[in-house]
Amino acid sequence: MRKRWQKVTFWTTLLILFVGFFLPLPVYLETPGEAEPLAQFVRVAGKHDRQPGKYMLTTVRLQQARPFTYLWFKTRPFTETISKDQLMGDASNRTFNQMQDYYMQSSINDAIKVAYQHAGESYHKKFLGIYVMSILKQSPFKSDLAIGDTITKIDGHQFKSVRAFIHYVKRQRVGQKVSITYQHRKTSKIAKRPLMKLPQTKHPGLGIGLVDHTKVQTKIPVKVKAGDIGGPSAGLMFTLAIYDQLSGQHLRHGRRIAGTGTMSARGKVGPIGGIDKKVVAANRAGASVFFAPDHPATKREKQLDPNYQNNYQVAKTTAKQIHSHMKIVPVKQFTDVLAYLKK
């Protein structure tokens, strides 16, 4: 009887451990990530930045929760839980990663453009085609296209913008068959299907969400490889790293400088999520300066949350909470970053 009880206890304990460590929950844990030196990602004119100090992009670690990790991290500061629906909607993991990769590539393109513009160097924006961002369930092209594909032609016609592409399709008829040429995982393919009536506009269409797929080409070569990092939030720091190497001004003067923020093609720094966790990561890496997006709250944001704080305010509060000596610098434009570093 005793041996039988020991056996039951053993297998019960084993089952609890297995479930606790390996059973995936429909919740993700967002915790402080790393402050990654940008020199490993950026190469201008075939060279990496080897000047003293570091520019660093900051990340947030995102992992699917297991019962034990969920309970552990709930006791830790600067940890948030996000449901799968909040994070991905109805997108699959592959689709979500594909979209994050697109946002990162767009961010890199804008970073290159702004950096070259401010450094007075030439660049050219090349239109590659129509990037597929989403596909309606009733789209006739659903069995052909995938998120991340690039449409290069329709009925043999090439276009220079999404706007021109949409204008052409609107002039056709619902039910009319059109032929599209597209790139799927670097392989060129062709599909011919009828146009559908779009639910909202009632115009003819393919039934996809689409954006411009472009690439910035430069006379002085530049390569930016972000590895497994996705999303647009590294745009500001990519811009700074490229500009500093391109201009030869070496503005960091041996310091470890971190920051975050999206970068628009016009040089505007945009807000991001998880900035408290990025401040923690930068502080751990020994940064002395942290650039934070500083945009006033909109009326809508104030209505939804009277205590709303923007990225800069949250970053300052976080630095104070962790007793950090980092200088938190508010920025709205890339020129604000340059003005501070040249001061």
Question: What descriptive keywords fit this protein?
Answer:
six-stranded mixed beta sheet, Pdz3 Domain, Ribosomal Protein S5, domain 2, 10 helices, alpha+beta, 343 residues
Can you describe what's shown?
- With 343 residues, this protein is of the alpha+beta class.
- It is built from ten helices and 18 strands.
- It has a six-stranded mixed sheet with strand order 5-1-4-14-17-18, sandwiched between helices.
- Helix 4 packs parallel to helix 6 (235-247) and helix 7 (275-284) packs across helix 9 (311-321).
- The longest helix has 27 residues, at 93-119.
Oligomeric state of the chains present here: single chain
Number of strands: 18
CATH class descriptor name of the largest domain = Alpha Beta
Q: How big is the Rg? A: 24 Å
Shape: globular
Chain-averaged pLDDT: 89
Helical content, roughly? Answer: 25-40%
- Give helix and strand order, one letter per element, not per position: HEEEEHEHHEEHEEEEEEHEEEHEHHEH
CATH architecture grouping of the largest domain: 2-Layer Sandwich
Overall tally of structural domains: 2
Major sheet description: 6 strands, mixed
User: How many individual helices?
Assistant: 10
Strand content: 25-35%
CATH topology of the largest domain: Ribosomal Protein S5, domain 2
Distance between the termini: 80 Å
Question: In what order do the strands lie side by side in the largest sheet?
Answer: 5-1-4-14-17-18
Alpha-beta classification: alpha+beta
Uncertain residue segments = none
Enzyme class: hydrolase
Organism: Loigolactobacillus rennini DSM 20253
Keywords: Hydrolase, Lipoprotein, Protease, Serine protease
Protein name: endopeptidase La
